[in-house]
Structures are given as structure tokens and as C-alpha cells.
Specification:
Shape: globular
Radius of gyration: 18 Å
Largest sheet: 6 strands, parallel
Bound molecules: S-adenosylmethionine, iron/sulfur cluster, FE2/S2 (inorganic) cluster
Strand content: 5-15%
Strand order of the largest sheet: 2-3-4-5-6-7
Order of helices and strands: HHEEHEHEHEHHEHEHEHHEHHE
Structural class: alpha/beta
Distance between the termini: 31 Å
Length: 340
């Protein structure tokens, strides 16, 4: 598929059922009916950056900031282990308190205690730090490039470098990480041309994971008055991602579940094969408000784990066994020599 063909599909305002069906078929053929669970632990909402779209931006003084202690993080990882969730995703703002050294200790602690795969989503680090984190046992790293339009990137992420973001993805790959990236759908100023380029970038980087979700305006940010991304367009991007990268892991994201009560189920039916239950301590969930009305802010971790199990079953799918490593070239690296 080239850029022109993608734009044509995105422009078409008719039903996209055919596209969704094709993506679901490719998902079934390449990934099977198993859905991988990745338990997310939002361990710090401190952030040094000022992304215009994000509720955690440094300039938002209304946020009640928190950091989890190592023991709290290990306790959340323990919940994952008990619920047979074989990956934890450690996510935070860009928080300088969590140096690479400190993160390495946390990764090692999780591996020892819970024995699961570890994904990091902590923003940009140096090439050396990526290597250290990999050596400490981290398996995967998520770094969304957010948009492939350099002008839009510069406007939305003041002080951040477009080139560094993409360079980071290369460094992660070189360090041996299973690498994920992604974008938001419906950013102000984003066009169908931008989205087509975004999709081609996913392919160029041969990503192991691709996460997309609608942009949801946060009232306490400079973009608070903008329109949010739509479910229809987000699902089209999920489906096109599946067609372009048949072997990538694609989550049914929390942002989709936030703008549509059936959002995650819909995504799982048009290309997605991953879901990320929230394992953060319930007392801090409201404070990790990257966008408003986020789902699962009052439910306990065990509840979310059971909820996603039920959701998967209701779709006639099953919880995938194993760690859910990259499907590219049957990667079996790291995570205590897991066979899966
Ligand atoms: N701080 C790290 C980073 O930016 O890479 C990781 C955490 S950040 C909260 C995770 C993702 O949240 C970002 O990559 C961005 O795509 C998404 N996000 C931020 N603000 C959002 C909004 N208003 N609506 C939807 N998604 C948003
Ligand atoms: Fe910080 Fe990430 Fe939010 Fe940007 S998107 S303000 S880096 S938490
Ligand atoms: Fe949290 Fe359903 S996943 S309540």
C-alpha cells in the first residue's frame, strides 16, 4: 500500500467494514485468537516536558504529583504474576528522579520477584542508558513518535527534538529491545497525508509493537478547547497498521475504551491482539490523568485483570499463553529463556 492508497481509504466516508474484516482475518492468520495481557503500572506522574496535549505536562500545576516506591511497584508486579499476566509495562512522565540506575534496580527486582517480561515507557533516554536498561533485563520499550509531521511535532512538543525521537527508536533496536511506537489520532493540524506518512513510518521502522489511540483534549492543557479524535478514524488506523505490519503487536488502547465503552472490543475485532489492564495502586490512578475521564480510575487492579479476561472471553477469544514477545522472526530472547 502506498501513501495515495492509504489516503483514499482514510478519505472514504462510507462504512469501513470490509477493511475491518480484512484486518481481522490477517490478525487471526498471523497472531491467532490469543490476546496478550500487559499490565500497566503508572509509577510516576512527574514530568519535565511540556507536551501541549498531555495532562501530566510540567506546566499543569493542578496535578497532584506522586512517585511509587520500589516496594509499591513490586507489589503491583506481584498482582500481575498472580493474575497470570506475563508482562508489566512501567510507564511514567519523563521523571529525572528515576535515573537509569534506579530503573535498572526496579527492572531486576521485578524479574526476580514476578518473573515476567518488562516493558518500559518512560520517555527519551540516552543511547548508553538504553543499553544499561536492556542489560538489566528490560525486554521492550515503547516510545511513540506521536506524529511524523516535523512542524506539528515541534509545535506540540516544545523543547523536544523530532530527530532524537526517531534516533531513539534506532538506538532501542540496536540495544536489542523489542521496540514499540505509535501516534495519536485527531491531533489538531494532523491531516490524512500526515497519517499516511505515520503508517509508512511504522513500516519503515519494522516495529514490534504499534500503539495508537485517539487524541483526547485535557481541559488543563493548551489544547483543552480542541476536538478529540474519532473512534472511526482510530479503528481505520488500527486496521491499516495490521495490514501493513501483519506481525506486529497492536493494543486495544485505554484511550479507545475511554471515548467509546466498546472501544477496546471494537479494536480487538479489527486488528488488535493486546490489551493493557491497569495495575497501578488505586489511590493514585486519578492523578495519572493524561486525558480526562480515563477508564478504570476507581477499579482495583484485580478487578481490571478479571474484567479484561471476561472481555476476551466474550469476544470468543482466549488469553494468549507465554510472554507475548515479538512475533517478528520468532524472537525468544530474554525473560529467563522463555520458550514463547
Ligand atoms: N512520558 C512518556 C512519553 O511521552 O513517551 C510515556 C508516558 S505518555 C503519558 C504515554 C502516551 O500518552 C504518549 O506517548 C501520548 O501518545 C499519550 N497521550 C498523552 N496525552 C494524550 C491525550 N491528551 N490524549 C491521548 N493520548 C495522550
Ligand atoms: Fe510528559 Fe509523556 Fe505527557 Fe509529554 S506525553 S508531557 S513526555 S508524560
Ligand atoms: Fe478496568 Fe474493565 S479493564 S474495569
Amino acid at each position: 500500500m502506498n501513501s495515495r492508497e492509504i489516503i483514499e481509504i482514510l478519505r472514504d466516508t462510507g462504512p469501513a467494514d470490509e477493511l475491518f474484516r480484512k484486518a481481522d482475518t490477517v490478525r487471526r492468520e498471523r497472531c491467532g485468537d490469543g490476546v496478550h495481557l500487559r499490565g500497566i503500572i503508572e509509577f510516576s506522574n512527574h514530568c519535565a516536558r511540556n507536551c501541549l496535549y498531555c495532562g501530566l505536562r510540567a506546566g499543569n500545576t493542578k496535578v497532584r504529583r506522586y512517585r511509587l516506591s520500589d516496594e509499591e511497584i513490586f507489589a503491583s508486579a506481584g498482582i500481575a504474576a498472580r493474575a497470570e499476566i506475563r508482562t508489566v509495562v512501567l510507564q511514567s512522565g519523563e521523571d529525572p528522579f528515576f535515573t537509569a540506575d534506579r530503573l535498572c534496580g526496579i527492572v531486576r527486582g521485578i524479574k526476580e520477584r514476578a518473573g515476567c517480561a518488562v516493558t518500559l515507557s518512560v520517555g527519551e533516554r540516552t543511547k548508553e542508558e538504553y543499553k544499561e536498561l536492556k542489560a538489566a533485563g528490560a525486554d521492550r520499550f515503547l516510545l511513540r513518535f506521536e506524529t511524523s509531521d516535523p512542524g506539528l511535532f515541534a509545535r506540540l512538543r516544545p523543547g523536544a527534538s523530532y530527530e532524537n525521537r526517531f534516533q531513539g527508536l534506532r538506538w532501542l533496536e540496536q540495544a536489542g529491545f523489542q521496540t514499540g511506537s505509535g501516534i495519536m489520532i485527531g491531533l489538531p493540524g494532523q491531516t490524512f497525508e500526515t497519517l499516511a506518512n505515520d503508517l509508512l513510518r511504522f513500516k519503515e521502522f519494522e516495529l514490534d509493537m504499534v500503539g495508537v489511540g485517539p487524541f483526547i483534549p485535557h481541559p488543563d492543557t493548551p489544547l483543552g478547547g480542541e476536538k478529540r479524535g474519532t473512534m472511526e478514524l482510530t479503528l481505520k488506523i488500527v486496521a491499516l497498521t495490521r495490514l501493513l505490519l501483519p506481525d506486529t503487536h497492536i493494543p486495544a488502547t485505554t484511550a479507545m475504551g475511554t471515548i467509546d465503552p466498546q472501544g477496546r472490543q471494537k479494536a480487538l475485532r479489527c486488528g488488535a491482539n493486546v490489551i493493557m489492564p491497569n495495575l497501578s495502586p488505586v489511590e493514585h490512578r486519578r492523578d495519572y490523568s493524561i486525558y480526562p475521564d480515563k477508564i478504570c480510575v476507581t477499579e482495583a487492579a484485580d478487578h481490571c485483570a478479571q474484567c479484561v479476561d471476561a472481555m476476551i472471553n466474550s469476544l470468543g477469544r482466549r488469553k494468549a499463553p507465554g510472554f507475548g514477545h515479538s512475533l517478528k522472526n520468532n524472537i525468544t530472547k530474554s525473560s529467563q529463556g522463555s520458550p514463547t
